[in-house]
């Protein structure tokens, strides 16, 4: 009769691996690490909504504002652009390369109509800030109650 070692943590290790695979997968079906290392340029954003406007702040460090394109079509904002590589193809001297170059494109569906003629954007210190004022019909209106 052979004795077998029992590892009480083996089932937990397997369960953790399954959960990591389920929740670690990104929108492309690839693990998030592969998207970051093999995918296009990553553009993290913050989106805020007030009663008057939407504000989108995107991190795009080192970008030239002329290389960023912002479009608004049918309440969908699209930010896209490209960051060109700053090095020649002589990579033998690199010990590690983590900076990403390439194209990016993100689109955001807005829940309320926007006053397209009042949209503004500015770029400072690597942060793109887009202000999208809501149209007058989309803003909440306070209704006064009369006491009779």
**CATH class (first level) name of the largest domain:** Mainly Beta
Distance between the termini: 94 Å
Oligomer: single chain
CATH hierarchy: architecture of the largest domain: Sandwich
Number of structural units classed as domains: 2
Total strands: 7
Q: What fraction strand?
A: 25-35%
Query: What fold name stands as the CATH topology of the largest domain?
Result: Immunoglobulin-like
- Shape descriptor reads flat
Mean pLDDT comes to 78
Query: DSSP helix count?
Result: 2
Structural class: alpha+beta
Spell the H/E element sequence: HHEEEEEEE
The percent of residues in helical segments reads: 10-25%
Summarize the structure in short:
The chain contains 2 helices and 7 strands; from the N terminus they run ααβββββββ. It has 148 residues and is an alpha+beta fold.
Descriptive report:
This protein has 2 helices and 7 strands; from the N terminus they run H-H-E-E-E-E-E-E-E. With 148 residues, it is an alpha+beta fold. A 4-stranded antiparallel sheet has the order 1-2-7-6, with no helix packed on it. The protein is flat. The termini are far apart. About 10% of the residues have low confidence.
Write the layout of secondary structure elements.
Layout: H1 10-24, H2 32-38, E1 45-49, E2 53-59, E3 68-73, E4 76-83, E5 102-109, E6 120-124, E7 127-133
Antiparallel strand pairs: 1-2, 2-7, 3-4, 4-5, 6-7
């Amino acid at each position: 009769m052979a004795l077998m070692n029992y590892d009480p943590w083996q089932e937990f290790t397997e369960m953790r691996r399954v959960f990591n695979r389920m929740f670690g997968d990104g929108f492309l079906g690839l693990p998030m690490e592969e998207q970051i290392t093999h995918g296009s340029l990553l553009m993290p954003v913050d989106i805020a909504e007030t009663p008057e406007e939407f504000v989108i702040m995107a991190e795009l460090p080192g970008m030239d504002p002329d290389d960023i394109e912002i479009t608004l079509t049918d309440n969908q904002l699209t930010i896209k652009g490209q960051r060109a590589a700053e090095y020649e193809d002589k990579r033998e001297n690199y010990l590690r390369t983590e900076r990403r170059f390439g194209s990016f494109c993100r689109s955001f569906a807005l829940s309320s109509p926007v006053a397209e003629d009042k949209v503004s954007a500015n770029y400072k210190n690597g942060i793109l800030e887009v202000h999208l004022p809501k149209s007058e019909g989309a803003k909440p209106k306070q209704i006064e109650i009369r006491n009779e």
